[in-house]
């Protein structure tokens, strides 16, 4: 107890560190924004499909494919950042996080291929 006799307040846990019934289930802190981004990407995919069906110019289609890849990379980076700042940080503080760090490095390898 601190000097004032009051119990010490615990630091609020981040949303991604809140225990879940399923250890592989994590509540995304910016879930709504992520869903909106993925839905936009979904719309872009539909646009590419239409462009192919309409026999559009190859370079225009490839430009849209490139934009979709960049948008997906943005989603991946946001989720990766949340994972590193939440799940990985928690694992490192609790038990050194060796297994979690290996998992993180494995997914980074996949993302940069």
Outline the structure in words.
- The chain is an all-alpha fold.
- The chain has a single domain, classed as Methane Monooxygenase Hydroxylase, Chain G, domain 1, CATH 1.20.58.1000.
- The protein has three helices and no strands.
- Helix 1 packs antiparallel against helix 2 and helix 2 packs antiparallel against helix 3.
- About 7% of the residues have low confidence.
Look at the structure and give the CATH class: Mainly Alpha
The tally of helices reads: 3
The major pleated sheet works out as:
none
**Unreliable residue runs:** 6-13
Please write the string of helix (H) and strand (E) elements.
HHH
Helix fraction by DSSP (H/I, runs of at least 4) = 55-70%
What's the architecture in CATH terms? Up-down Bundle
So, the CATH homologous superfamily? Metal-sensitive repressor, helix protomer
Q: What is the CATH fold-level name?
A: Methane Monooxygenase Hydroxylase, Chain G, domain 1
Shape: elongated
Q: Which structural class do you get from the secondary structure elements?
A: mainly alpha
Radius of gyration from the alpha-carbon trace, in angstroms: 21 Å
Q: Strand fraction band?
A: under 5%
Strand runs, count: 0
N/C terminus separation: 51 Å
Q: What is the typical, i.e. mean, pLDDT?
A: 85
Overall number of domains: 1
Could you give a short description of this structure?
This protein has helices at 31-53, 58-95, 98-112.
Please render the helix and strand layout as text.
Elements: H1 31-53, H2 58-95, H3 98-112
Keyword list:
3 helices; 67% helix; Metal_Tscrpt_repr; Transcriptional regulator; 0% strand; 113 residues; Methane Monooxygenase Hydroxylase, Chain G, domain 1; mainly alpha; Metal_Tscrpt_repr_sf
């Amino acid at each position: 107890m601190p000097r004032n006799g009051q119990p010490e307040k615990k630091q609020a846990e981040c949303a991604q560190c809140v225990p879940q019934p399923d250890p592989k289930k994590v509540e995304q802190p910016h879930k709504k924004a992520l869903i909106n981004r993925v839905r936009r990407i979904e719309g872009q995919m539909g646009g590419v499909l239409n462009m192919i069906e309409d026999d559009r110019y190859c370079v225009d289609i490839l430009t849209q494919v490139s934009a979709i890849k960049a948008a997906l990379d943005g989603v991946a980076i946001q989720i990766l950042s949340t994972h590193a700042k939440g799940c990985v940080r928690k694992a490192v503080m609790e038990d050194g996080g060796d297994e979690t760090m290996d998992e993180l490095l494995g997914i980074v390898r996949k993302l940069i291929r």
